[in-house]
Specification:
single chain, mainly alpha, two-stranded antiparallel sheet
Amino acid sequence: MAHLGGSFLCMSTVAEILEAVKHLPLDKKGEFLDGLREIDFEDLWDRQIEADAKAGRLDPPWQEALKDIEAGRTKPLDGVINDS
């Protein structure tokens, strides 16, 4: 819950949060951004990839990649990196 002028606000949607941030004083916007920087979004990304893998959502692209490798439609990563 957010505290605003003696009352508490409950924001449950991204749109509500964005609207509230628009009305923050400049110093509070900086404080908000600093707080966002502290969130480990990479951990969230890792958990999403893990959940997708467990649910089988990565199986189709994986199978397609294996077919491309077997058919010779790929390049070694070292060759791609060194060409840039």
